[in-house]
Amino acid sequence: MSKKNVQDKLLIFALGGVGEIGKNMYVVQYGNDIVIVDAGLKFPEEDMLGIDIVIPDISYLTENRDKVRGILVTHGHEDHIGGLPFVLKNLNVPVFGTKLTLGLIEGKLKEAGLLGETKRILINADSEVQLGSIVATFFKTNHSIPDSLGVCLDTPEGRVVHTGDFKFDHTPVNNEFADLQRIAEIGREGVLALLSDSTNAERPGFTPSESVVGTNLEEIFRKATQRVVVATFASNVHRIQQVVNAAAATRRKIAVVGRSMVNVVSIAGDLGYLNIPEGMIIEPEEVNKMAADRVVILCTGSQGEPMSALTRMARSTHRKIDILPGDTVIIAATPIPGNERHVGRTVDELFRLGANVIYGPGSVSGVHVSGHGSQEELKLMLNLIRPKFFIPIHGEYRMLRHHAQLGESVGIERENIFIIDNGDTVEFQGGNARKGSKVQAGNVLIDGLGVGDVGNIVLRDRKLLSQDGILVVVVTLSKQDGTILSGPDIISRGFVYVRESEGLLDEANRIVTSTLNKLMNDNVNEWASLKTNVKDALGRFLYEQTRRRPMILPIIMEV
Amino acid sequence: MSKKNVQDKLLIFALGGVGEIGKNMYVVQYGNDIVIVDAGLKFPEEDMLGIDIVIPDISYLTENRDKVRGILVTHGHEDHIGGLPFVLKNLNVPVFGTKLTLGLIEGKLKEAGLLGETKRILINADSEVQLGSIVATFFKTNHSIPDSLGVCLDTPEGRVVHTGDFKFDHTPVNNEFADLQRIAEIGREGVLALLSDSTNAERPGFTPSESVVGTNLEEIFRKATQRVVVATFASNVHRIQQVVNAAAATRRKIAVVGRSMVNVVSIAGDLGYLNIPEGMIIEPEEVNKMAADRVVILCTGSQGEPMSALTRMARSTHRKIDILPGDTVIIAATPIPGNERHVGRTVDELFRLGANVIYGPGSVSGVHVSGHGSQEELKLMLNLIRPKFFIPIHGEYRMLRHHAQLGESVGIERENIFIIDNGDTVEFQGGNARKGSKVQAGNVLIDGLGVGDVGNIVLRDRKLLSQDGILVVVVTLSKQDGTILSGPDIISRGFVYVRESEGLLDEANRIVTSTLNKLMNDNVNEWASLKTNVKDALGRFLYEQTRRRPMILPIIMEV
Predict the structure, then answer these.
(1) Fewest Cβ atoms closer than 10 Å to its Cβ: which of A125, A265, A471, B134?
(2) Which NCBIfam families match (chains A, B) (predicted)?
(3) In what side-by-side order are the strands of the sheet with A33-37?
């Protein structure tokens, strides 16, 4: 460990991941050394119309690019790795991850054309990495993807522990246990600050082991007299392994369907994270040639995503697979908030096709468990680590609050718990901690190829357009005498069904004409004034007639 | 009972309420007599952009208006009465309801200017109503609003029972029990067909009694050292009564906040459905003058609705009430699918203001129970009625399917169970039943004052506009020689942030100009062709550059 400089401080903050679910990015800085933990994306909220994904604002990091020593990636989920292609484009620093994590990252970097120029460093739970004055070591955790790590950062100011996403699974599918001994040792040696996963901080008790899903899957496979379709998160390699095991036990072959599922099965298989018996995987084209009770279809679409494999099957628009009466469809996932209606619609469509659908909360369906620890596990982590300071991370504000309460309940002083927003810094010096100044943080919206070119004005316009549509009013005026040479023409989109509203639009036309003529007679002929008057008169009329407020775009040309 | 005509058939169908949650409207027709049960509205689905509410298509009823004998209303919820103002505008028939139900309906009719011309007939559980050849009697049920009824329709072809929305609450708040004896008697006398509420058909067990909420509320009120805010559905009069009781027991006064809450408390109070001690209600303005531990604020906003009282308080934009640190906020409701994120955001904001928030599923929070019976209650109803034929109603397709399975499980023949879509008829004759022909059914969208003037094209345009915005391209051409006199001018809304994309729009301009000039040189000068070419060239360019597909509106003027 490097020696301590009396003037240097330890700073901890999040650029994403607190007060939200997604775009996780945490920063630990000591003096001139910055270490980043994760670089995730977030899916857009419902008011971010037309946006594809959201990534963190990394202005602070690009302004301090010479200090950034590397990005440690805890595991391969999108909300932890999905921002990497955008971050690395602006910040060429080494990326550290375990084998599966790097495997999933490499696919992304390849697509972004960044594979060659990015230094990728393979680590495992026993690695030690020197990052300037900061030394990183790691510990194994359980999560819904293999090879997940927690991070221990020894800084001259003290030890910082970041749990990553975790649960304690005492019967893990791959027999890779969370390293309780190592975690306890880290705690015994003394921890200044703990950053811990708050996702399930609202949930009492323990999260069940992933293994219980396997038992239930096998029972369902056994009872099914025809084909079985299983939709789950592509990245849940443990779940996929259990589907493979249940298929093997019931002498079924597996067809893998859906781009990300094919991708993950291929990467995880190549890297040795999936144990698939020889000859078990069949092509989707072969499904129809096999006896129905010898087939499993493993696919994407557990969130009812409109373009996913399961949704296409449910709508009978999948090119290769049809759902047949008597098929069993298992949705091995819980809807993420916001997706409930999509999932419900998919379930309805599957039932209509005659399928037997197994779905719903894991506690009812038995085919899903969370990858995040519940309150008892969070308290266990707090008590294993016994930090002086505690920063709940990875969750909406209410989850952070609940997690803070859990911290208090196990004896951490209330004033030693920091609930932060993205950009809030916590400063540590001489064993004390306090809120520091804010660094820039926020959402960068990605729409198509555009990164950050859609801001509040564009979103506000999209919202307006989505509610009542638009009317474009075009008039050509004479340069000489201001008389109307052509128009007004009114074109509407998303406002009313035009054929049934001719009278309304004719009247609107007359109002524009008379407004303009009146202004001309009064010798008002600045464009701005003409436009404002047309907009106001027309807006008033339309609101009176329809109680709608379409966007009005007056276009006045002069020739 | 009128005599039977050998040629007449009994028809049962839904114009709303099956394959969906909302806009309940069921029709029972025997020969020339049509009886309608309920006329509800539905809130728009997320792809119905800009739509306010959705009501059933009643073309079949208006085409057969001389046969319609009346509308029986089972209870006063919006999804059962909200369509009445629109239906009654086109179909002036008598409306039958209990005191509270009529009270709530009258408010709506008054607003719509229909109160005078609508015949409203007060009924109670003991009423008997002759509707042509059909005789309607009623039975008391439990639901999350008082005065809820089930309907028994004796037709010459046999008896039809419609449960309305129901649960079996053995300890009802108002001591009004579901009339088990009467329901059993109806069943013993023989029932041809049962239509029964499927809302909770996916849920095992029994729905808890509303009374358990009262006990928990009182405990929370007692522990709270400062103000208590309770948000719940305005129409849940039982819940409101329990808030009143808990306030009385803990010597607190109640301020009622939010338009619909004020409305319901006033109507239910006037009609004797609420027992509020003298002097218990205070004005919202008085809240700040009272000791914090003597106050309860009863308000709307349990679904996180953007304009509701609780949401405004959470955002500190309510004119009269501020949330103060230490206040206790109880959200006594479960989010309706689609509202989870709104509720979550409200909870976060309340926590940020320092409130203690009690929320979440009723099984965790203890402050909410459903108004609909779970599987054991649905089976109890099936076994009390023991119908020959069974039509599950009131629910999404998956709920109807589960309910059908419950029907089978208690011994109803599978071929005697009809899962229907809106518009599907079931025909009964001579004790037999079969699917008949379809009648017109569907969604009528209401947007502002427009009823049904927003159709698929308008919605598709709103969707397009919401995703990538719009570009309007305006050019004025010379009538004589086709040269460009003015423009092209490109105006965009909701596409890109213009100031940062000047280069892109300049290039777009050049592409439009060169496309037009090329066409002119080739002597192509029909407008349709000019417009299509500009649209295609510009669309291609923009997609290449941005991977977005804004709506493009070329406007070509000639002078």
Answers:
(1) A125
(2) MG423
(3) A120-122, A95-97, A68-72, A33-37, A25-30, A10-16, A424-429, A432-438
> Does residue B2 carry a pLDDT above 60?
no
- Residues in chain A, pLDDT under 70: 1-6, 498-499
Query: A447 and A516: one domain?
Result: no
Q: Quick check: B469 and A364 CB within 8 A? A: no
**Same domain membership, residue B439 and residue B472:** no
Q: Tens digits of per-residue pLDDT, B40-74?
A: 999 998 889 999 999 999 999 999 999 999 999 99
Kindly state whether residues B287 and B396 are assigned to the same domain: no
pLDDT of residue A362: 81
Contact B469 A487 (CB under 8 A): no
User: According to the model, what pLDDT value does residue A189 have?
Assistant: 97
Distance CA B76, CA B311 (A): 25
Largest CA distance in chain A: 89
A360-369, B102-111, B364-373, B425-434, range with the lowest pLDDT: A360-369
Strand ranges of the sheet holding B120-122, from the earlier edge strand across to the other edge: B120-122, B95-97, B68-72, B33-37, B25-30, B10-16, B424-429, B432-438
For tokens 């982590």, name the residue.
A381
- CATH assignment at residue A546: 3.10.20.580
Please check whether residue B79 lies inside any domain of the structure: yes
Co-location of A305 and A446 in the same domain: no
Coil, strand or helix at B194: strand
Q: To which residue do tokens 């073309």 refer?
A: B59
Q: Are A345 and A304 in contact (CB under 8 A)?
A: yes
Residue B433's pLDDT is 97
Of the candidates B19, B447, B497, which has its C-beta nearest A458's C-beta?
A: B497
Across the beta sheet with A53-56, what order do the strands follow?
Answer: A53-56, A443-447, A450-451
Per-residue pLDDT tens for B196-208? 999 999 999 999 9
Domain containing residue B314: 211-364
Residue B493 sits at the chain A interface (C-beta within 8 Å): yes
Let me know if residue A477 belongs to a domain: yes
Which of B426, B451, B476 finishes a domain? B451
Asked whether residue B260 falls in the same domain as residue B405, the answer is: no
- Of B433, B451, B469, the residue that ends a domain is B451
> Is the domain of A408 the same as that of A505?
no
> Which amino acid is residue B36, in one-letter code?
I
> Which among A49, A339, A398 is the top mutation candidate for probing chain B, defined by the most B β-carbons within 10 Å of its own β-carbon?
A398
Measured distance CA(A154)–CA(A1) in Å, rounded: 7
* Structural domains of chain B, count: 3
Give the three-class secondary structure for A510: helix
Closest by Cβ to B555, choosing from A449, A454, A474 = A474
Mean pLDDT along residues B396-418: 97
Residues on chain B touching A501 (C-beta within 8 angstroms): 453
Token pair 């959201």 is at which residue?
A: A54
| Cβ distance of B448 and A204 shorter than 8 Å | no
Check which CATH number belongs to the domain holding B334 and give it.
Answer: 3.40.50.10710
Interface of A with B in 298-357 (CB under 8 A): 337-338, 340-341, 344, 347-348, 351-352, 357
pLDDT of B304? 93
Residue B466: pLDDT over 90: yes
**What pLDDT does residue A478 have?**
82
Q: Output A244 or B476, whichever has higher pLDDT.
A: A244
Per residue in B325-336, pLDDT tens? 999 999 999 988
Kindly state whether residue A4 falls inside one of the protein's structural domains: no
pLDDT, tens digit, 9 for 90 and up, residues B299-309: 999 999 989 99
Domain of residue B69, CATH code: 3.60.15.10
pLDDT at A365: 87
Q: Indicate whether B351 belongs to any domain.
A: yes
| Domain shared by B344 and B406, yes or no | no
How many other C-beta atoms are found inside a 10 Å radius of the C-beta of residue A55? 26
Shared domain check, A324 and A242: yes
